[in-house]
Design goal:
alpha+beta, six-stranded mixed barrel, 52% helix, 19% strand, elongated
Length: 414
């Protein structure tokens, strides 16, 4: 295939012959591809923002809260309060082998942490080492609680991001320092920088985490626990297991197993599924709106090309008279349509990327991008291919009209 520069000069001359008309025609395609690119990139960034709320969470997590009963059962009136104990972990493990991680938690609210002359409000959590498999900490310094901390009764803690910034405003590694929480002292062994909105029993940013057994002693909680966090083994769904989990706990504590409000269960599997379904619908809507707008632009290009062919009837007739074949006429008109469509579309893609980059900069905190409002490279390539196809389709009807022009009719029209 040879490169015919005269042909491309002619295409450029035809497009620029009526600049205002070409710009207005190209704007439809420009706006359509701009909308498509911006919506795709914006949808991707929005999904990342919402997904960040679940950052670090296992997708098959179930959390159990005991609450006051709402149904009478075995002679007990409704409204009775009940609580779980550490023995419930063994009951669940032995009776429901599909469970993988079972991690109890204790919580205390309204505490305050002190280091030298600095003070910070905090929540206090007692967990087991396996809790890291339920809500993975984002450790900036140090480590998480381990089995040796439990076995030796070490007075250690992991502090959240806000607590760290309040107690150690100068930054640096705080591991090894001793902080006071209420009336007791704990050695800092880690800093958790998790910032997701989806947290268990309070924000991770403002929490101080200690070994569960240590908190039981510090607050005289005995064998009681506030909640249970669990994950299932691969291949099992929380939705299929939640009735069995309720049944085991209800039987142990004389609670009606159908009292869902009493044995309150949070199923993160459902939340993830809802998020995926939501964005599947959003993506479908984005493509429908974007492609619909593009098609409207392509129809505009086709209409203008029809007008152009009509204006150039004599020119086309003369070409046919001096030997131009129908294929050459077809190729010329379709090339002009593709050139106008692709030029306007590329401008729309570039402008969309610039807008998305500005949105991404606005979502940058401390030099870290919180969400990527960008389109993938192959998405842009696909959009360009779509533009080319639309250019061919838009130019096809005008090209067929041009092919039907006969030299004699063209001269008579003149």
């Amino acid at each position: 295939m040879t490169f015919d520069i005269d042909r491309y000069r002619e295409i450029l001359d035809t497009i620029t012959r009526n600049k205002a008309r070409s710009l207005l025609t190209g704007f439809g395609v420009f706006w359509g591809i701009f909308m498509l690119v911006t919506l795709i990139g914006g949808g991707q960034g929005l999904k990342e923002n919402l997904s960040a709320n679940f950052e670090g969470f296992a997708t098959n997590t179930v959390v159990i809260y005991p609450q006051a009963t709402t149904k009478p059962y075995h002679g007990f009136r409704k409204g009775r309060t009940w609580g779980m104990t550490f023995r419930d972990t063994e009951r669940l493990r032995s009776q429901i082998p599909q469970l993988d991680v079972i991690s109890p938690m204790l919580s205390h609210w309204g505490g305050s942490a002190t280091y030298k002359d600095k003070k910070a409000s905090c929540s206090f959590k007692g967990v087991m080492p396996n809790y890291a498999q339920v809500e993975t900490p984002k450790l900036s310094y140090g480590r998480f609680i381990n089995e040796m901390d439990i076995a030796e009764g070490r007075r250690v803690c992991i502090i959240g991001k806000r607590v760290y910034k309040s107690l150690f405003p100068g930054g640096g590694d705080p591991c090894g320092q001793r902080i006071q929480v209420d009336s007791a002292f704990y050695q800092v062994v880690g800093v958790d920088y998790s910032s997701g909105s989806m947290t268990i029993n309070g924000s991770a940013e403002q929490a101080i985490v200690v070994p569960l057994t240590l908190m039981q002693q510090a607050y005289n909680r005995g064998d009681s626990i506030d909640l249970l966090c669990m994950t299932l083994k691969p291949g099992y769904r929380v939705t299929d297991m939640q009735d069995r989990i309720r049944m085991v706990l209800a039987k142990a504590h004389d609670v009606d197993p159908t009292d869902e409000k009493s044995i309150f269960l949070i199923n993160t599997e459902v939340m993830y599924s809802m998020l995926d379904s939501l964005f599947s619908g959003v993506n479908l809507l984005i493509w429908l709106v974007g492609i619909g707008t593009l098609l409207a632009g392509a129809i505009g290009v086709s209409n203008i090309m029809m007008v152009t062919v009509r204006e150039r009837t004599t020119e086309i007739g003369i070409r046919r008279a001096i030997g131009a074949t129908p294929r050459m006429i077809l190729s010329q008109i379709i090339s002009e349509s593709i050139a106008l469509t692709v030029a306007a579309g590329m401008a729309g893609i570039l402008f969309g990327i610039v807008v998305l980059e500005m949105i991404e900069l606005a979502n940058t905190t401390g030099g870290v991008v919180t969400a990527h409002f960008q389109v993938r490279f192959w998405t842009a390539v696909g959009a360009l291919a779509l533009l080319t196809v639309l250019g061919v389709v838009a130019g096809l009807a005008p090209a067929l009209r041009a092919m039907s022009v006969k030299p004699v009719d063209a001269m008579r029209d003149e």
